[in-house]
Write a structure and sequence with these properties.
The complex is a heterodimer of chains A (about 400) and B (about 290). With about 400 residues, chain A is an alpha/beta fold. Chain A contains 13 helices and 16 strands. The longest helix of chain A has 25 residues, at about 5-25. Chain B has one domain. Chain B has twelve helices and two strands. Chain B has helices at about 1-30, 40-55, 60-80, 90-115, 135-160, 160-170, 170-175, 180-205, 215-230, 235-255, 255-275, 280-285, and strands at about 125-130, 130-135. In chain B, helix 1 (about 1-30) crosses helix 10 (about 235-255). The chains are: A alpha/beta (about 400), B mainly alpha (about 290). At the A-B interface, helix 2, strand 8, helix 7 and helix 8 of A face helix 1, helix 4, strand 2, helix 10 and helix 11 of B. Chain B: Pfam families: BPD_transp_2 (PF02653).
Chain lengths: ~400, ~290
């Protein structure tokens, strides 16, 4: 046997070997990721970056070998901002497509519409928005920022900088109502005063009366938690009427990118605390932005929802690989160990075992007259501590409830 | 005190302008012609997008707004020729056809133009009275609403076209027998209606966020104004707008936007119950 033949056979064996491994891999079915994001309707401009973030993460993960060697199949449905469709499509993904994980939902109303349906299954659900906080539910993992990360940082800063009187403009549904409740609680603790609160029905676009009510109440600053394209018209109309008050928000700029959608200076003097905004200037963030814009060159702004949606898939990958299983129970053991962390573009983020919410590095940003964004203060990493403090402990008990400052767990 | 008085007038003018501008086009298309145009909001959206597009190309705002209204009018006449013409005797089918058109248009705009367009900003100008500051542009909107009413009065009451148009709407067969070209009358009337919808979008474009579904924020108000106004554009729509504006303004000011909206829609239900033919049925009868 000459060396050439030995070499040839070795090569053949190697080829056959890899072919065998390859076919074994192909036989492994892909992981199904169900995604519900609005890419049409009133919230499409926010939902589109969420879809893009998910697509980018899936593409990257698949290219680098998938999750536990399995490729990801993304099944996206568009509920068009309709809560009934969220439920219908949620059932379809969970029961018919039998997805391994469900991700998505924009408004808190859509999340609360989905949650009871998810709770009846053993499928994990990732909610990827910042929100009003308080959901204590073992099936849900929250990737966005919550009030103790956003309001407990922003409101004291606004009070110190601008004064103790605030006027609130909020969207009239659970997000706006509960966020306003958070504001009342924090303002009371600070000795401040809420001089007015106005809840606006979704879809309302005319604000002349609201602007005058504000001027009558003479606040030092405004808390703007209005939602959707129609309600955002407030900024343009307030600027035209020369209202000229400092504003704070948990959803403006980094989420709705109003500073890109409105002509300056409509968003001048807006302040927000955020874990992500496109203007973050760190090597990790810049690398992430480059990859995003290479895939989606027309993206107006990478908002924090889209960013969180991207992270959700990497968090899912980390949980599955550490648990070596796609089962919710096994993944929750990883969360309970406190070891559920990923290196995100903002820095390291971890899931809190008690509440299954995510720690975030929070920064306070301001918008200037030319709509330039500057970082006023860096708070470092803030844990989602509130649910744990009031007695939600998912490692011990699954409450399946949403708590607010006025609706706390019963002490039993 | 005078500041408070002016503020009440300003708020009334603001709601009135919104109701008149969003309803004027529909008053012709639905009120007079009887076509339930579910795509009314999309003509408004068309006016807004054309305005912003032209301004971004460097066209001055007022000219862009006029061109936008003209564009919406021309598109309206094309739609009338291709679709609406086939449904004059079938009002319920016209509802379905135009609703389908509205869905196609919003979705196509989303695919072609994208989910959000950068706004152009409201023209500069504000003034202060007492402790309040007001946007000058909102008064321009009020002026435009009054001008639209005046323009409609002249077109439909003082011109030959107006006489023939009203005759056609009342009895098309008789008008045709007397030599009126009813097909053309319908086409032009529909065009005027959609041009006014486009004008509404053009006028509100600087003050709002532009998204493909923006027409929806106008549609409820425009339909309720036309429905409680009844068939007569001038003697129906205008009083209806005054009436609804007063209710909404008063409730908005004292109880906030939610009660304002609920109260306005509640008033609409009451009026339709008591006067199924709308306000104009009472006013026109008195006038005779």
């Amino acid at each position: 046997m000459n060396s050439g033949r030995i070499f040839g056979m070795a090569l053949l064996a190697a080829v056959l070997g890899t072919a065998a491994i390859g076919s074994a891999q192909a036989a492994e079915p892909p992981l199904k990721v169900g995604l519900l994001e609005d890419v049409s309707g009133d919230l499409a401009f926010m939902g589109m970056p969420k879809l893009h973030g998910s697509q980018l993460a899936v593409e990257e993960i698949n290219k680098s070998g998938g999750i536990l060697g399995r490729q990801i199949e993304l099944i996206h449905l568009d509920p068009q901002g309709d809560n009934a469709r969220y439920q219908e499509f949620g059932r379809r993904l969970l029961n018919r497509d039998k997805v391994d994980v469900l991700i998505g939902g924009i408004t808190s109303a859509s999340r609360e519409a989905l949650r009871p349906i998810v709770d009846r299954t053993t499928t994990p659900y990732f909610y990827t928005n910042q929100y009003e906080g308080g959901v204590c539910d073992a099936s849900m993992i929250s990737m966005g920022a919550v009030p103790e990360q956003q309001f407990s940082t922003l409101i004291p800063w606004m009070v110190e900088k601008f004064g103790k009187k605030v006027y609130v403009i909020a969207a009239d549904y659970n997000f706006g109502q509960i966020s306003a409740e958070w504001n009342r609680k924090i303002m009371k603790d600070l000795g401040g005063e809420v001089v007015g609160e106005e809840f606006i029905p979704l879809g309302v676009s005319q604000f002349a009366q609201t602007i005058q009510n504000i001027q009558k109440a003479k606040p030092d600053w405004l808390l703007t938690i209005n939602v959707g394209a129609a309600q955002d018209s407030f900024f343009e109309q307030a600027a035209a009427a020369n209202l000229n008050l400092p504003m704070g928000s948990s959803i403006k700029v980094m989420l709705g990118f109003e500073h890109k959608r409105f002509r300056p200076p409509a968003l001048n003097n807006m302040h927000a605390t955020a874990n992500w905004f496109e203007e973050i200037d760190t090597p990790e963030a810049n690398d992430f932005k480059k990859r995003w814009h290479a895939k989606f060159p027309d993206e107006l702004y990478i908002n924090d929802m889209g960013y969180n949606a991207y992270n959700a898939l990497y968090m899912y990958k980390a949980l599955v690989e550490k648990a070596k299983s796609t089962k919710l129970d096994e993944m929750r053991k990883v969360i309970a160990s406190g070891d559920a962390c990923i290196d995100a573009p903002e820095g390291k983020v971890c899931i809190d075992p008690k509440s299954q919410h995510t720690s975030h590095r929070m920064r306070l940003i301001s918008v200037g007259p030319k709509h330039e964004v500057t970082v006023e203060k860096d708070y470092g990493t803030i844990q989602p501590y509130w649910l744990g403090e009031i007695g939600c402990d998912l490692t011990k008990k699954n409450d399946k409830d949403q708590y607010t400052p006025s609706h706390l767990p019963s002490k039993s | 005190m005078s500041a408070e008085l002016f503020s009440v007038f300003y708020q009334f003018a603001d709601v009135f302008a919104f109701l008149i501008l969003s309803a004027a086009g529909l008053a012709i298309v639905f009120g007079m012609m009887g076509v339930i145009n579910m795509a009314h909001g999309e003509f408004i959206m068309c006016g807004a997008y054309v305005t912003v597009g032209l301004v971004n190309l460097g066209v001055p705002l007022p000219i862009a707004q006029i061109l936008a209204a003209v564009t919406a009018g021309i598109i309206g006449m094309i739609v009338e020729f291709l679709i609406v013409r086939r449904f004059y005797k079938r009002p319920l089918d016209s509802l379905l056809a135009t609703w389908g058109l509205s869905l196609i248009v919003t979705q196509s705009m989303l695919l072609i133009v994208g989910s959000a367009v950068r706004g152009i900003g409201t023209p500069e100008g504000s003034f202060a009275i007492g402790g309040y500051t007001f946007s000058t542009y909102r008064l321009v909107l009020f002026g435009a609403a009054v001008a639209v009413l005046a323009g409609l009065y002249i077109i439909f009451m003082k011109t030959r076209f107006g006489v023939v148009a009203r005759a056609t709407m009342q009895n098309a067969a008789m008008a045709k027998a007397l030599g009126a070209r009813t097909g053309r009358i319908y086409s032009i009337s529909f065009g005027i209606g959609t041009a006014l919808a486009g004008l509404c979008g053009a006028l509100y474009a600087p003050t709002m966020t532009l998204i493909p579904t923006m027409g929806a924020t106008f549609v409820v108000e425009s339909f309720v104004t036309v429905v409680i106004g009844g068939a007569n554009v001038l003697l129906g729509t205008a009083p209806a707008a005054v009436f609804l504006a007063m209710i909404r303004m008063a409730l908005n000011a004292s109880y906030g936007q939610i009660i304002g909206q609920i109260g306005m829609l509640f008033a609409v239900i009451l009026i339709i119950r008591v006067l199924p033919e709308g306000l104009s049925s009472v006013l026109v009868r008195r006038g005779r």
